[in-house]
Sequence to fold (246 residues):
Amino acid sequence: MKDNFSNHSKQYSVFRPTYPDEAIEFILNLVNNKTNVWDCGTGNGQLAAKLSPFFQHIYATDISENQITNAVKKDNISYKVVAAENVIFEQNFFDLITVAQAIHWFDFEKFYEKVYLTLKPNGIIAIIGYNLMKIDEESDKIIRHLYSTILGDKYWDKERKYLDEQYKTIPFPFQELQTPSFSQKVKWNLEELIGYLNTWSAVQHFIKANGINPVDEVKKEFENIWGKEKQKEVIFPTLLRIGKLK
Fold:
């Protein structure tokens, strides 16, 4: 698994969107017992924090120590720096296993071995994420230009394709449950939008390779559309796959 986020973990914790309450509620309704959860690839603990009111204990793991340092703190969340494929938990321990915006970085085969070992027979695995946001025609055009032309295949990791393909092409060796469509809607000003764009791993790759920030190139275009204080609705389509052990 690649660690693309340690160097800007503080930005990540501030500017990354969370996940829609409706999707969380849908997942919760599928879980019979609410004792233990493993939130794998937890990042800054966004999903773990959303789940914490409903379960006795959340075990949240990530390979990035910096991400966990900046993670949401709750009394019933235990954080640990460890790769998804290397965790050690009891057999048949978890009622729910979640992966939020991280499954595309995993070694699928090794991770799923851990899932089959640690998930209870009637437990649930939920893979959740989001892909490219939608704002309005003018803004979307600028974002697509940054995403596909300025960054493109040269700076996006190859694993990004799984998000572009809406997680439909990831291996998923489970009894899959049908899910409705969800989306996360936020009201952002320009500073929040630019902050989010700067968390993209491809932007960080571009900066490392060229010594300049590609987001600066498009910021002026956004200023012409947004102004500095105006807020716009930003919509992140939710990617969601849910399964049970076969």
Q: What stands out?
A: The chain has one domain: 6-244. The two ends are 26 Å apart (CA to CA). DSSP finds ten helices and eight strands in the chain. Residues 137-155 form the longest helix (19 residues).
